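Q: What would this chain look like folded?
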Amino acid sequence: MLRCMLRAKIHRATVTDSNIAYEGSLTIDEALLTAAEIKPYEQVMISNLNNGERFETYVIPGKKNSGIICLNGPTARKGTVGDVIIIFSYGYYPEEDIRDFSPLIIKLDEKNRMVK
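A: My prediction, written as C-alpha cells:
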C-alpha cells in the first residue's frame, strides 16, 4: 500500500506579488524551491492563513534569493499581497519507507528568508 505523506512544506511564506494576467501557477524564489526540493511544475497545495482559502496549482521558479512568492492567473483571486501562506508538497510512499519518515520543513521570516 502507498500512503500520501507530506513530503515538504514552505511555512509562512508572504505573498509578494499577484498577476491575474499570467496563465496560472505560483512563482516561488528558486532558492526556496531548491531548499524544499520542489521541482518546477510540481503540483502543490496552498493554504492561505489570512482568508482560509486552500487551492492546488503548480510552481514555477522565480529569481533566486529574491523572496518572490507570486500568485498567478486564477490563483491571484485566492489571496492578496501581504497574505501569509503555507505551501505543501505531497508524495506517495510504501509503508516500509515511512517508519522513520519526516517531511522537509522550510520556515520563513516576513521577508521570505529561511530561518533556522
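The chain has one helix and nine strands.
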